[in-house]
């Protein structure tokens, strides 16, 4: 009898020490408040299947479903909830704060696009949000303190959980300069490692980094901050379907636009201060498989009514799917760059890939589609360079691995030498570029402001001519004029066969 009592006590003690925690997470929602259509191919039959996913009401229902199934659930948003649809622009992000106040995550990390309406606007949302907004490595030079909360601590059963928020150090290169003025973004690992001793004094059992930097930088963080248990990220829009571990630390990310909800199940041994079991997965938020959250649906409908005037007008027809391409030419990029060049009447048109926020299936084109493809409402600008500078710009472009540019009026031919792209020849208006000739370029004001990032050159304000029109309005007018669009890949950027 005594042995039985001792065994029962030890068993009870073991289970008391081992605690189950579930983490639900999403990132890069980009105001996708309405469900959207996706297309997948059946490998067996070769046929395409389309279905609806996402939307705020659908995402909320999936979160509620899994919250009700577990006792200790942590809900985290890894940033970039703003920017991507008309309602975000119209309300300057307020729509998303209102919806997130209803979903009520345990924490959100700031993303670069969450500053698209300026730091002062974001500062107001830090006050009105009913959930913690984190930014542990963003230092406000005006106060010399963290701009947002560095971390939160949440007691979940017997487990004390800390969530540290950090973001990409590239914030100044990813935003218009005025929107992020007077910020210093410290290196993520240093910021995390500076906070961890404080968390250890508070006897935290589980340490999570909630990041907005991209999966590659999350891997670096894992190598440099070994005290972390989990990294939940955003920014690179990466759907991590299989558990990814670096330096023994789980890295998770849930794609973008609310198509997937990330779910992590882990067991924490508080006595040994370790995670003894851990598993992550992505759940596709198909609308057909769940009833939408009715309260969220009502709010979304109210917001969409605010934004709906004229947005559902059919203005054209797309004959081929518009597809984006990260490191080369795309048919949607060609069309946008052509439209920009045609409007500005310049030799060259340039569109950064990062400014193309949505692909589009063949069919009717409505005004809303252009708002979602080009949500930022950037102004169009022009500037001029000579041929020698243009060569340097394009050679620089060929070397960058992030946010490549789409072009119009130019043909770029490069050679590949041991994985390095080297400019072979460059034509403008079908003629080889001459070093002493001046060429005019049209692009958006963000690309011009970040000319150092994109082309390795500095442009002064005096060199940039403002056209006083938004790129989105130009694209809407271009669709109206063309009516039927069948844009293709044309070999504007290609590797030489010589």
Q: What this model shows, in words?
A:
The protein is of the alpha/beta class. Strand 23 (410-417) and strand 24 (420-428) form a beta hairpin. The protein is globular. The protein has two domains: 17-305, Metallo-dependent phosphatases (Purple Acid Phosphatase, chain A, domain 2); 312-495, 5'-nucleotidase,  domain 2 (Alpha-Beta Complex). It has 15 helices and 29 strands. Helix 10 (331-344) packs across helix 15. It has a six-stranded mixed sheet. The chain has a six-stranded mixed sheet with strand order 9-10-12-13-15-14, with helices on one face.
Task: Provide the fold topology.
Elements: H1 2-17, E1 18-26, E2 36-41, E3 48-53, H2 56-69, E4 73-77, H3 86-91, H4 94-103, E5 107-109, H5 119-128, E6 133-134, E7 138-140, E8 145-146, E9 151-156, E10 159-167, H6 171-174, E11 183-185, H7 188-201, E12 206-212, H8 215-224, E13 230-232, E14 244-246, E15 249-252, E16 260-269, E17 274-284, H9 294-307, E18 314-318, H10 331-344, E19 348-352, E20 363-366, H11 367-373, E21 379-386, H12 387-399, E22 405-408, E23 410-417, E24 420-428, E25 431-432, E26 438-444, H13 445-449, H14 451-455, E27 465-470, H15 471-482, E28 484-485, E29 493-495
Parallel strand pairs: 1-4, 4-5, 5-6, 10-12, 12-13, 13-15, 18-28, 19-26, 23-29
Antiparallel strand pairs: 1-16, 2-3, 7-8, 7-11, 9-10, 14-15, 16-17, 18-20, 19-22, 21-26, 21-27, 23-24, 24-25
Helix pairs in contact: 2-9, 4-9, 10-15
């Amino acid at each position: 009898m005594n042995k039985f009592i001792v065994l029962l006590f030890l068993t009870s003690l073991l289970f008391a020490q081992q605690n189950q925690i579930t983490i639900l997470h999403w990132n890069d929602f980009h105001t996708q408040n309405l469900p959207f259509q996706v297309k997948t191919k059946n490998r067996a039959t070769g046929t395409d299947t389309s279905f609806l996913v996402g939307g705020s009401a659908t995402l909320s229902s999936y979160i509620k479903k899994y919250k009700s199934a577990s006792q200790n659930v942590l809900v985290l948003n890894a940033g970039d909830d703003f920017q991507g649809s008309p309602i975000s622009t119209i309300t300057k992000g307020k729509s998303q704060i209102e919806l997130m106040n209803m979903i009520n995550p345990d924490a959100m990390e700031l993303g670069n696009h969450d500053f698209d309406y300026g730091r002062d606007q974001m500062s107001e949302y830090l006050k009105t949000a009913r959930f913690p907004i984190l930014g542990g490595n963003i230092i406000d030079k005006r106060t010399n303190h963290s701009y947002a909360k560095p971390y939160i601590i949440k007691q979940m059963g017997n487990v004390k959980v800390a969530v540290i928020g950090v973001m990409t150090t590239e914030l100044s290169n990813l935003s218009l300069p005025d929107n992020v003025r007077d910020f210093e973004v410290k290196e993520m690992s240093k910021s995390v490692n500076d906070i961890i001793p404080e968390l250890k004094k508070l006897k935290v059992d589980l340490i999570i980094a909630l990041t907005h930097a991209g999966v590659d930088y999350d891997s670096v963080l894992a190598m440099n901050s070994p005290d972390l248990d989990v990294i939940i990220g955003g920014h690179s829009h990466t759907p991590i379907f299989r558990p990814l571990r670096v330096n023994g630390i789980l890295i998770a990310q849930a794609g973008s636009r609310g198509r997937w909800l990330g779910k992590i199940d882990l067991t924490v041994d508080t006595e040994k201060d370790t995670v003894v079991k851990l598993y992550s997965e992505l759940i596709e938020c198909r609308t057909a498989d769940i009833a939408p959250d009715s309260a969220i649906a009502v709010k979304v409908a109210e917001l969409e009514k605010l934004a709906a005037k004229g947005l559902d007008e059919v203005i054209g027809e797309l004959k081929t799917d518009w597809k984006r391409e990260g490191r080369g030419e795309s048919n949607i990029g060609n069309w946008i760059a052509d439209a920009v060049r045609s409007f500005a009447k310049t030799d060259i048109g340039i569109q950064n890939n990062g400014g193309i926020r949505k692909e589009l299936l063949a069919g009717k084109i409505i005004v809303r589609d252009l708002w979602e493809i080009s949500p930022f409402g950037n102004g169009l600008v022009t500037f001029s360079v000579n041929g020698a500078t243009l060569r340097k710009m394009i050679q620089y472009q060929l070397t960058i691995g992030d946010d490549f540019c789409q072009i119009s009026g130019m043909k770029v031919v490069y050679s590949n030498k041991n994985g390095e792209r080297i400019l072979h020849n460059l034509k403008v208006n079908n003629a080889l570029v001459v070093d002493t000739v001046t060429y005019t370029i049209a692009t958006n004001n963000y690309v011009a402001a970040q000319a150092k990032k994109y082309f390795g050159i500095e442009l002064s304000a005096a060199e940039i001519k403002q056209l006083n029109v938004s790129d989105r309005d130009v694209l809407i007018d271009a669709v109206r004029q063309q009516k039927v669009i069948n844009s293709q890949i044309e070999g504007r950027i290609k590797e030489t066969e010589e």
